[in-house]
Amino acid sequence: MAKTYLEPQNVVPVYDECDVLVVGGGAAGHSAAIAAARAGCKNVILMERYGYCGGDVTGGYVLLIPSCSFHEKVYVRGLQQEWFDRLSKIPGACYGPPDSDIGSHDPELLKKWGACGGTTRIEPARVERGWMLDPTQTKIEMDIMLDELKDRIRVMYHSWGCKPIMEGNTCKGVIFESKEGRKAVLAKVVIDATGDADLCRLSGAPTSNAIDDECRCGSTALVYRIGGYSATKYSQWRATHGEEARAMGQKIRDIHGFMSGLMSGATDTVGWVNNWQPKRDCSKIADQTATEMGTRLKLRQVLDCYRTMCPEVFEDAFIYDIAPQLGTRGSHRIVGEVVIGSNDWAFPKEYDDTIAWHCTVDTLNDNAPIEIPYRAILPQKVDNLLAPGRHISADAVAIDNVNLIPQCVGTGQATGVAAAVAVAEGSTAHTVNVKKVQDILAGEQDVPLPRNEHTDKSYTECLVEHEYGLYTEAAKKARETQDAAGTYRHWSLTGGAGNTDRAKG
Ligand SMILES: Cc1cc2nc3c(=O)[nH]c(=O)nc-3n(C[C@H](O)[C@H](O)[C@H](O)COP(=O)(O)OP(=O)(O)OC[C@H]3O[C@@H](n4cnc5c(N)ncnc54)[C@H](O)[C@@H]3O)c2cc1C
Q1: Mean confidence (pLDDT) of the chain
Q2: Residues 335/203, Cβ–Cβ less than 8 Å
Q3: Ligand 1 atom with least separation from CA of 27
Q4: Which among 23, 292, 358, 434 is placed 20 to 30 Å from 384, CA to CA?
Q5: With a 6 A CB cut-off, is 328 part of the ligand 1 pocket?
Q6: Domains in the chain, start-ordered, CATH in brackets?
Q7: Once rounded to an integer, what is the mean pLDDT over residues 291-309?
């Protein structure tokens, strides 16, 4: 038996009390806190282990927000659209197509927006709402959004939530660690937005860390940025130097030992190197350490490779910076009251409790929006604990496609509203009036939802007109890759079945 140490019993001081406690300030947690406050909750606490919000986005340097529209309609609105609206006003903070270009097949616009993930790869390609952002400006904007609601939201940075306080099956708060020691925050509803189901795992709710080997969620990353080159020039070079570009990619892969790709950022002169370090669990110390050190130890060699193999673009390039935070795609997640699976893309599935209606990055249905039910953020067996973000309930393959930034913002926003409604009405996370939650989301919070009277009918009409994206040639071809078990693969790290051949998240 492994050595153990019996921790002495301890009296934990209560640091604060609130109605809604959000633990984790990433895309999901930040959105949950903002949405709860805007839905009327006056006593929200946002607890975050680091000193800023954004998680993978601002700390992990994940700078691409993809797939927010289908044909000419932007389905992913709400807080995600607000990020775009706010950042678009700040020079250099964000780069992506305006509303007027969405859905266009114009070759010039496709060329213009292709580099920032603002087009589909489906023939005929369309411009879509996708954009690159600057992490520093996003970090600042996220603080501004919280500060605007400071009469309702108290932010606790540098506080690490480590244990749910359970009374039977009901969550009553969280114990956290900080420089002030071990303390507790009591709450009526707790939102676990840690990304790795840190609190749900200890609450008695069922969780799973099963991830298909081919999926991006089973890989970690340490993103770094390269400056002193031109992304436009690099893209032109790749278009005219196919062989050399492939050779350089292979050389870099050999140095690193994993796949990576230099992607453009919000400005032309700084790009981010996304990478996929397979079979690593972002919740394991050894894998976290190997990702951090393994990447950094090879960085100088990689930069030399860019410089020597493509001097016309990278002669003056330098390592701009390294993400302060490990890139965490997936690990533990809840097994909720509904588990999202591949059939959610294969059929136009309808749920009574849909709280987000999101385009994903899947060719199987031509990037058409799918419905995400409230029950996918609702853990089984425990009450007053909700789980939006990258650890929502989805199977070992489907999780790859429902935990990108837009879905994390969308499920976060919905969770915040649900928590506010539960507190206002004295109900619980399980008994909350979901229709009311949907009405607030689709009404004042600008989140289109299917079959909701606050949502313009043109959203459904667009889907029907394009047959839910299921019958395009590209979608049919993608579905032909259905594997023997009858499940669909959405992503592939090695280029196997269903590889969409687009930048993987
Ligand atoms: C390298 C990489 C590339 C990706 N590429 C894309 C892409 O191109 N486009 C896209 O849309 N998505 C992409 N993704 C996925 C996407 O970035 C994430 O799924 C999403 O940002 C997760 O948001 P989240 O809020 O659920 O979790 P996180 O961003 O992980 O946020 C969790 C937050 O909780 C905090 N936290 C964790 N544990 C605790 C605790 N116990 N107590 C207190 N605080 C805690 C963390 O510090 C963090 O701030 C990528 C992910 C990675 C890693």
Answers
A1: 92
A2: no
A3: 25
A4: 358
A5: yes
A6: 220-328 (3.30.70)
A7: 98
Pairing of strands 333-334, 207-208: antiparallel
Per-residue CA distances from 37 to 146, 147, 263 (Å): 10, 12, 35
Give me the helix-helix angle, 242-256 and 231-240, nearest 10°: 110
Closest Cα partner for 336 from 405, 404, 411, 284? 411
pLDDT in tens, 303-318: 999 999 999 999 999 9
Q: How far is the CA of 27 from the centre of ligand 1 (A)?
A: 7
Is the per-residue pLDDT at 498 higher than 70?
Answer: no
Percentage with pLDDT > 70 across the chain: 92
Q: Which of 31, 52, 53, 62 to mutate to test the pocket of ligand 1 (most atoms within 8 A of CB)?
A: 62
- Whether 192 lines ligand 1, by a CB cut-off of 6 Å, is no
- The two structure tokens encoding residue 77: 């609105």
Cis peptide before 448 (omega within 30 of 0): no
How many residues are listed for the chain in this entry? 505
Mutational pocket test of ligand 1: of 405, 409, 490, the residue with most ligand atoms within 8 Å of the beta carbon = 405
